[in-house]
Amino acid sequence: MADADPGRSPLERPGTAPAAPHVVIIGGGFGGIACAKALARAPVTVTLIDRNNYHLFQPLLYQVATAALSPADIAEPIRKMLRHQRNAEVLLAEVTGIDTRRKAVLTEDGARIPYDTLVIATGSVYNYFGNDAWAEHAPGLKTIDNARAIRTRVLMGFECAERESNAARRQALMTSVIIGGGPTGVEMAGSIAELARHALARDFRHIDPREARVVLVEAGPRILSAFPEELSAYALQRLEALGVEVRTGEAVEDVTAEGVRLPGGFLAANAMVWGAGIRASPADRWLGIAPDRAGRIPVSDRLEVAGFPGIYAIGDTVAAPGASGAPLPGLAQVAKQQGEHLGRELARQARGASGAVAPFAFRNRGNTAIIGRHAAVFDFGKRRLKGYPAWVLWAVVHVYLLVAFEQRVLVSLQWLWRYVTFQRGARLITGVPKEPQTAQGSA
Question: Which of 187, 218, 340, 345 is catalytic?
Fold first, then answer.
């Protein structure tokens, strides 16, 4: 039997015309999955391409990095999510480019996936502002591999401190630095502090994990700068109550395997985490257009890329205008709403309705960050919530957004167990971690 044409989508058969328009979606994040599902009953064929075989719930990735959850709790195979959608297929592939003239997506293995309509939903990565070498020592929180590496680094620091006789080096081994005071940085700092002061407090014989140092560094004048000052001040108060040292107005000058250099001197540390900014995927290079300062490509209010009819982009990879004219923030709720809207509009067109895709209007469901036990903030625009009520609402919202019922049950039970016992069940050191190279002394 002859091999199938590698440049042809598996939904197409040699010698036959496609039964329906072909919609190709690049990216299996919130936006891509939402768009694919919105096309479930449309007379189209859908191909979703992603370099991973799973959809990752990134808002809870920091809990994997701090041993609160395991990766399986917040990830779901994409094929499983779309297995009942008869008009959809999933391809595991790395996209390397787009041939806009011949309307095909190019992949690393040399395949060409033809499309009639293309949706780019490739998300974002962390921005090191020209210092990409820092990523080796201060990984961001975008992938399961990075979360596991951070978890291993944090836990390995305590293990090495347990047998370290030098007091200065022992303190450095129990020091974590989080760079960036946005929601990710705040959540990460609070979670590491609670891990050390509660879950690990009674597990060692020669060190006291409660003496661990957690430092949150923010270049701007305050943490959670996207939130109202009232909520930012509350978050600062709660972090300090957990023992987190918050340094604002200090831009990182260098990151090495031994720590970070700040304007006030070198801060020796074992674990460094980057959360100081993001940049969009390489969609601008694929299309040959100029991005904005964050690497995002411009789209119209209809989510179409200017100059490329039939190519749409959603989520973190685009600078989509909001009601005020400013680009919408890179939030999961933005990507999901854009995906749902675009999918519905493409389905409407496929059924023969006239007219272009309707303008997208974002409905703000609130911006949130959790600081620690019983402490969170919610900003709904005109309304604000903080403390215990915000913490409960944060938990409810995040459980609801998990894609699988079994994940909702498992995460809820684990959170309940953590709440009662202060323990964490995913404290595993995996891989072959290197011996920490932490220097003595600190800023």
Answer: 187
